[in-house]
Amino acid sequence: MNQSNSQRLAVIAFALLFVANPCRAQRVAQAEEDLMAIMGRHQAIGLSVAVVKGSDILYSRSFGLKDRERGELLSSDDLFRIASISKSFVATGIMQLVDEGKLSLEDDVSRLIGFRVRNPAYPDSVITLRMILSHRSSISDKGGYFTLDALNPEKNADWAKAYNTYAPGMDYQYCNLNFNLAGAILEKRSGQRFDHYIRQHILEPLGLYGGYNVDDLDSQRFVTLYSYNGEANRFTASPAAYQSRAEAIKDYVHGYSTPVFSPTGGMKLSVNDLARYMIMHMHYGQARGVRILSEESSRMMQAVLTPKSGYGLALRTIDDLIPGKALTGHEGIAYGLYSAMYFQPEEQFGIVAITNGCITGFKDDVINDFLNAVYNCLYHNFLL
């Protein structure tokens, strides 16, 4: 099987590395040996990683298979559906509109979306944009989240099912519907279709290839995702991860049909471009000499609003991924994929890790055992 150009270049680069810097080359070799052992323990199908220091990608490599049935090797230029890390792109877009004065985080979501968004147990309590971006809105996924009909009283007689029993702003519950709603608000207030806005205002300025609309992307670069069935003890491919949106958008309603692109989890991006996006957040809104977000808004996204969750505005801070380090970022789980993008802004380092399928338990409610081991391996080999 022929290697991709990126894989051949990686082999050449690492060969030169061994000659020019034997000490670093030894650390690379040890890290890769450790990563392969971790993959073996968890039966991981593929793994892409990137380590960032300052403004640069210090190390990037992919291991294993992009597609098991075809025996195709995984490349660091291949595209993953990165799952809930996608939420940070929505919040970044919202904060760009805040910077422009088109939105306020204290705006009433009802006014922004165009139908009444109120917890029926607290009808006088305003649900704000800040609340939905921090999962403190009291909205839940109990009634589903693939359409805004789930909480629209004009469309759904069971709309009240979409709310929890506590008052808006008084508690935290992770909720995908919050971000599909936020994506629709971004669309209404920007005047651009959601996927177009994200591409033109975040991806293109940063020089990144990817997006929410699979039909705009090179399908040959999509990484097959594999869900593990414990009872059957087997992995199954998940084609739904990259379903075409062509039919779904034929009757598209601007500012309402937005969930067809899954703002909450539908971004497709390579590990290297996700690392470059992370560098922007690590530098509070700028990368490669390009500022796409004010420092104030970027810091606001990272500020913890709910201590028990560590959540800010689509970014959370955790302190048990790497012992002694408070890291900020997000993780994703969908269709068998596990992803993590976490960085340390004061010490200026970050790590991205994505697998398209593995067997793992969870270290806690956020990061699983597999990604935890990968992060600690990369930190100890490249950042200590």
UniProtKB/TrEMBL annotation:
Keyword annotations of the record: Hydrolase, Signal
Enzyme class (EC, first level): hydrolase
Residue ranges of domain Beta-lactamase-related in the record: 30-357
Entry's EC annotation: 3.-.-.-
Gene Ontology molecular function: hydrolase activity
Segments crossing the lipid bilayer: none
Family annotation (CDD domains): SAF_CpaB_FlgA_like
Superkingdom, natural source: Bacteria
Signal peptide range in chain numbering: 1-25
Keyword Nucleotide-binding included in the entry's annotation: no
Gene3D superfamilies: DD-peptidase/beta-lactamase superfamily
Name used for this protein in its record: Serine hydrolase domain-containing protein
The species this protein was found in: Parapedobacter deserti
